[in-house]
Design a protein that fits this description.
Blueprint lengths: L19 H4 L1 E9 L2 E11 L5 E7 L4 E12 L2 E6 L4 E7 L5 E8 L2 E9 L17 E9 L1 E12 L2 E8 L4 E5 L2 E5 L2 E6 L4 E7 L5 E8 L2 E9 L3
Length: 228
């Protein structure tokens, strides 16, 4: 069973006959393949008359600046390739060039992918509001091979956040899609992996005993607080 898959599904961007100003800027979309969801960001800038260059980010996989190549725009149809991962995109822009509807193709697989203009990045600083489970938690998944898992939890006034490391797979800082705590119940989702954790916090606040579920498989996972 392959856990914490970090296969990179990449995408691309907008289109229209309207010119560089029409598609210039940042675009966002979510690629959904079964239970796996990957947020994607595309950044487009002009590259000569009627031409564009771009880069792609996959924030859920901590991947940024992936080069986009062979951008072709004809009427409202956009095509492009991402050679580094063997991917391509074909989409059609609406009349206002605010939405691109199309499909991402990679490795013989095709999945729908809709892009919309991304809002400007927020400059509001999140205000910390520490809780008694903030910090680092470490455990081991036994899935044929042992995989160390480290979860970092932080609490802010607007809610909790978490990131996950898989040191044995050299994957670090993968953001949790959501994290919640209700009494002793702690849960977090990793949609980019098609996985989730659900566990119970012990009375001493030293361990969270639960299960990791991913792509139809469930394994026990005991997370222990890492003392600093």
């Amino acid at each position: 069973m392959k856990l914490l898959c970090t296969t990179l599904f990449l995408l691309l961007a907008p289109t229209s006959q309207a010119g560089a100003q029409s598609i210039q800027g940042d675009w966002q979309g979510t690629l959904t393949v079964g239970p796996v969801e990957l947020r994607l960001l595309l950044h487009f800038t002009p590259d000569g008359p009627g031409a564009f260059k771009g880069s792609l980010d996959s924030p859920d996989q901590r991947a940024t600046g992936i080069p986009v190549a062979s951008v072709r725009i004809s009427d409202s149809t956009l095509t492009f390739q991402v050679p580094s991962i063997g991917g391509s995109y074909n989409g059609t822009a609406n009349a206002a060039v605010t939405t691109i509807t199309g499909a991402w193709t990679q490795g013989g697989m095709s999945a729908p992918l809709t892009l919309t203009r991304a809002p400007a990045p927020s400059t509001v600083r999140r205000v910390p509001k520490p809780s008694d489970i903030d910090g680092d938690w470490e455990g081991t998944l036994e899935a044929g091979a042992s995989l160390r898992i480290v979860v970092h939890i932080a609490t802010f006034e607007d809610g909790m956040s978490a990131t996950m490391d898989s040191p044995d797979q050299k994957a670090f800082g993968l953001p949790a899609s959501s994290v919640t705590r209700t009494g002793a119940k702690v849960q977090f989702q990793m949609k980019q992996l098609g996985g989730e954790f659900s566990g119970t916090l012990d009375a001493g606040l030293t361990a969270i005993d639960g299960t990791w579920s991913q792509l139809g498989n469930t394994l026990p996972l005991l997370l222990k607080r890492v003392k600093r």
